[in-house]
Design goal:
Layout (H helix, E strand, L loop, with lengths): L1 H11 L4 H19 L2 H8 L3 H5 L5 H17 L9 H18 L2 H8 L4 H16 L7 H24 L8 H13 L7 H5 L1 H6 L2 H22 L2
Helix pairs in contact: 2-3, 2-5, 5-6, 5-7, 5-8, 6-8, 6-9, 6-13, 7-9, 8-9, 9-13
C-alpha cells in the first residue's frame, strides 16, 4: 500500500526536462548507456514514454543533456574565484576528473562530442584562463587544446580503466599490485623502462598523478611566456 502511495505522489510531481535529465544521470550511473531506454526511464519517473518525448526528442539528445548537466555541475562551483589562472585551471581539471570518475559514461560522451556543447564549455573556461596567463594570442588555441586534450584524455582513460577492471575486482591496491607484478616480470631487454617504473605504478595515486600532469603542461606554457617566440 505504501508503495502505491509513493508512486501516486511521484506521478503528481510535474514532469520537467530537469527531472528527466536527473533521472537519466542516475540510470546511466547504474546501467550505463546501453541500459538507458525511454521505457526504463518512464518507469523510473512513473510516467509514459510519450510524456518524456514531449521534453526530449530522443536518446541522443538525452545523453547530450545528461552529459552537459554533469559537466556544468563540475566546472561551475567557484568558477573564476579559485585564485590565479593556474589555480583555476587545476580546480577545473580536478572537478572534471572527479566527475568523470563518478560518472564514467561522461568520458565516452565527451570523446564523441568534439566541438559541441559540453566540450565547448570546457574549452571556453580553459581558454579564458590561458588568456589571463598572458599567453600570446597566436598560441591560445594550441595551449587551450593541449590542456583540454590532457584533461579529457586522462580523465576518460582513468574511467575506462575502472570500467574495464576484471569482474569482481574492487580492491584498487590489489589490482595495481597484480599489474605491477606483471610489469616486473616482463623481458628486461624489451621493456627495461616499464620494468623500472613498476613500483611507481603500484604506489601511485590517480588524482595526484593527474594534477602533476596538469602542472607539467602549465609549466611548458609559462616557460614559453618567459622565453618568447
Amino acid at each position: 500500500m505504501a508503495t502505491r502511495t509513493r508512486r501516486a505522489e511521484r506521478r503528481q510531481e510535474p514532469l520537467s526536462r530537469e527531472r528527466i535529465v536527473a533521472a537519466a544521470v542516475e540510470l546511466l550511473d547504474t546501467v550505463g548507456e546501453s541500459g538507458l531506454t525511454f521505457r526504463v526511464l518512464a518507469e523510473r519517473l512513473a510516467t509514459g514514454p510519450g510524456a518524456i518525448y514531449w521534453h526530449v526528442a530522443g536518446k541522443a539528445e538525452l545523453l547530450g543533456a545528461a552529459t552537459e548537466a554533469v559537466v556544468e555541475a563540475a566546472v561551475t562551483p567557484g568558477d573564476g574565484h579559485a585564485g590565479t589562472p593556474q589555480d583555476e585551471i587545476r580546480a577545473l581539471a580536478l572537478g572534471l576528473f572527479d566527475a568523470i570518475d563518478t560518472h564514467p559514461w561522461v568520458g565516452t560522451q565527451l570523446a564523441m562530442a568534439t566541438g559541441q556543447g559540453p566540450v565547448l564549455q570546457v574549452f571556453e573556461r580553459i581558454g579564458r584562463r590561458i588568456r589571463a596567463l598572458g599567453v600570446p594570442e597566436a598560441a591560445w588555441f594550441t595551449a587551450a587544446s593541449a590542456l583540454m586534450n590532457y584533461i579529457l584524455g586522462v580523465a576518460g582513460q582513468n574511467a575506462a580503466n575502472t570500467r574495464a577492471a576484471p569482474p569482481g575486482v574492487t580492491d584498487r591496491a590489489a589490482f595495481l599490485d597484480a599489474v605491477a607484478s606483471e610489469w616486473s616480470s616482463l623481458d628486461a631487454d624489451a621493456y627495461s623502462f616499464t620494468r623500472s617504473v613498476a613500483g611507481q605504478l603500484r604506489e601511485h595515486d590517480d588524482r595526484a598523478e593527474f594534477l602533476a600532469g596538469i602542472d607539467l603542461v602549465l609549466a611548458g606554457i609559462t616557460a614559453g611566456l618567459r622565453t618568447g617566440p
